[in-house]
Specification:
By secondary structure, this protein is of the alpha/beta class. The chain is 39% helix and 16% strand. It has ten helices and 13 strands. The protein has helices at 12-23, 40-50, 66-75, 97-118, 152-171, 193-202, 222-233, 270-281, 305-311, 319-334; strands at residues 3-7, 27-32, 56-60, 80-83, 122-128, 175-180, 183-184, 207-209, 216-217, 220-221, 257-262, 268-269, 287-289. The strands form four sheets. The chain has a seven-stranded parallel β-sheet, sandwiched between helices. Helix 2 links the parallel strand 2 and strand 3 (56-60). The chain is globular and about 55 Å long. The chain starts with a strand and ends with a helix.
Length: 335
């Protein structure tokens, strides 16, 4: 896969993926609309790290802009496409639903059409652990039903999986969906809890701890995510000849379609996570305990058997190591 399109290239995961692909010798075209969901200056600072790198080019472009997307695919012949562009955030979806429909549904449809008409060999796209919604059986398995999302954000990600399957079936487009679990690390998203906690603790302000601290998360370090994605890109899925319509395994298909979890396969209590962050910052947090927010879930935990079996890879960065790296970056970047 020598020529790859990465959408959301100025985003957290997109930025790190572009760096890795360029280091591996690929030609990368990155697109991003640089919206103001969070500080665009951080997105531009990420882009500054990429601009000028051999093999990298960037276009400011919105997935929902159909003519622009058609022109993009007419001008380039991508071997692989990695879709990391999306309107993110569970809580924001309660206030601004239309932005999720425009970016995550309409935009994804435009991307599928571009891949279909230009002969893309593999579409890899970001789904989310949020699709597990009302599921309570842990760890979350890709073979479980996920038809009960508890936020519009999760519903749009589930819609992406369904749309991708239809294109895999109808047009033979190999599609792999990746359910990411709470990605964190340097250059991360400022709306994420660990980022908000760090900013508040260093400023001497209280942090908001939802569900009275009784939250569990499968935190996954950014380098582990990128390593998994790069392994997956070069191996398009094929149809599963053993797929049974009576049992209807959601993770595979008769079509060239696959779903994987990418998580650390380790559950951290939010209280322990905060303790580790306090140690990294050498400063205690003042906590305000609040009830669960609408659209949120109490626990996430990724079952990783399929990724390990198919790619011989499993994320392993500890929460202590990951947070130390994040805090070191945060202190340097924000001085």
């Amino acid at each position: 896969m020598k020529k790859i399109l990465v959408t959301g290239a100025a985003g957290f995961i997109g930025f790190f993926l572009c760096k890795k692909l360029l280091a591996d010798g690929a030609e990368v075209v990155g697109i991003d609309n640089l919206n103001a969901y969070y500080d665009p200056a951080l997105k531009r600072a990420r882009l500054d790290q990429l601009q000028g790198a051999p093999g990298f080019s960037f276009l400011r472009l919105d997935l929902a802009d159909r003519p622009a997307m058609e022109q993009l695919f007419a001008q380039h012949r991508f071997e692989a496409v990695v879709n990391l562009a999306a309107q993110a955030g569970v809580r924001y979806s309660l206030e601004n639903p239309h932005s999720y429909i425009d970016s995550n549904v309409v935009g994804f449809g435009n991307l599928l059409e571009g891949c279909r008409h230009s002969g893309v060999r593999h579409l890899v796209y970001a789904s989310s652990s949020s699709v597990y919604g009302g599921n309570t059986r842990l760890p979350f398995s890709v073979h479980d039903n996920v038809d009960h999302p508890v936020s519009l954000y999760a519903a749009t990600k589930k819609a992406n999986e369904l749309m991708a399957h239809s294109y895999s079936h109808l047009y033979g487009l190999p599609c792999t969906g990746l359910r990411f679990f709470t990605v964190y690390g340097p250059w991360g998203r400022p709306d994420m809890a660990y980022f908000l906690f760090t900013r508040a603790i260093l400023a001497g302000k209280p942090i908001k701890v939802f569900n009275h601290g009784k939250m569990k998360r499968d935190f996954t370090y950014i380098d582990d995510i990128v390593e998994a994605v790069t392994r997956i890109i070069v191996r398009p899925p094929v149809g599963n000849p053993a797929w049974d319509r009576k049992t209807a395994d959601p993770a595979t298909s008769w079509a060239p379609y696959r779903i994987y979890n990418i998580g650390n396969n380790r559950v951290e209590d939010l209280s322990h996570f905060i303790e580790v962050l306090e140690e990294c910052l050498a400063k205690k947090a003042e906590k305000i305990f609040l009830p669960m927010q609408d659209g949120d879930v109490a626990a996430t935990h990724a079952e990783m058997d399929d990724l390990v079996a198919d790619f011989a890879y499993k994320p392993a960065t500890s929460i202590t190591e990951g947070l130390q790296r994040f805090v070191a970056w945060y202190r340097e970047y924000y001085q």
